[in-house]
Amino acid sequence: MPAEKRPLILQMITTIGIVNMLAMPLISHADGHSASIQPGMKIAFDKKKGNCLACHKIEGGVTLADIGPELNNMKQRFPDKSLIRKRIWDETKFNAETAMPPFGRHKILTESEIDKVVEFVWSL
Amino acid sequence: MKSPWLIIFTLLTTSLAFNTSYAETQDEDLKKYRTFFLNKFSNLKLEDFKDGVYALDSIARESWIEIEEFPPYEIYIEEGEELFNKAFSNGKTFADCFPNKGIGIADQYPYWNNERKEVITLPLAVNECHEKNNGKKLKYGKGKLASIVSYMVSTTRGKKTNIIIPSDSDAVAAYEKGKQFFFARRGQLNFSCAHCHMAYSGSHIRTEVLGPTLGQTTGFPVYRSKWGNMGTLHRRFSGCNKQVRAKPFKLQSEEYRNLEYFITHMSNGITINGPSARR
Fold this sequence. Notes:
The structure holds 2 protein chains of 2 kinds.
Chain A: H1 8-45, H2 74-77, H3 81-89, H4 111-122
Chain B: H1 4-17, H2 22-40, H3 58-69, H4 74-85, E1 111-113, E2 118-120, H5 122-134, H6 144-154, H7 169-183, H8 193-199, E3 204-205, E4 208-209, E5 222-224, E6 229-231, H9 233-243, H10 254-266, E7 276-278
Parallel strand pairs in B: 5-7
Antiparallel strand pairs in B: 1-2, 3-4, 5-6
Helix pairs in contact in B: 1-2, 4-6, 5-6, 7-10
């Protein structure tokens, strides 16, 4: 049956259904994560806060940075989330020659800001 | 593969271990640093480093060459020439304060002054001449002094950097202090000069390419688009220190003069092509 012959209400329901089917997973994905990762992402991308994009490529950020490694597959690389926190806190403990600023030790970020950044970074 | 930092630390420790033989130490330093950069950028020759970051980044180089065709620093050279030749109220000019009347001599700066036991940079010498004859000091970062230095450097173009560290324990100590400054972490962000301009030179910090220390002094003073005017090397030092959230030293402080001594010596043999333009 040609679409134009269908009752309007059916057409609308079909359209809404398709839109919903497409949109729902995206919306639920965002809903499931935004609360936990959005604040951290904001801090990570803020030039006056984490400024992570100065040195790292991160999905969603505009940068050519290649000083530190790209931040991806973090759960595989860091099954232990607390290790990410320790390395953001003071990477010099893990690599004495690193260029990475000791965000915790030098109070570049607060405890709670670091917690938020860890949530974001671990989601990458 | 050895990390660049391992190489740098080896360089630093071996050069410190040689401290008993001064002249040898600096010659060794020169060889080691050159080798480091020439290995890191194996497609470049020593002389190529005079173009700073534009020796590395071909896209930025194209626009830089275009800018250099109508150089934004030209009016500063002209202003500098006028100021340089203008007589003080006592009838003297800057030419009276310098060897060869101040023409083509920028390659001899900075130098170790044995009587004063300190490093004398060209901006310092220009300002001391101004103060002696005019009674007033000029500002070191930009303005008239940057223009006068720009003119004097422009008359030196084509000569090669040739910094001599005399076999004098105080001169060597000044050089070594400059070296320590260069390799020391500082500021809240905990970077050393060497992190960005040696180990990670050629890498991108966000979208900008980090310039190598080798050849970095040859282009100064620079017209920097970010500044919108001419600036001296120490103005840039100060900016770098602020960027790592360290308290900057005063321009022409002993710390910055020693640093200038160390990094200019590193560029020995590279042609002076300043003033130049930078982003």
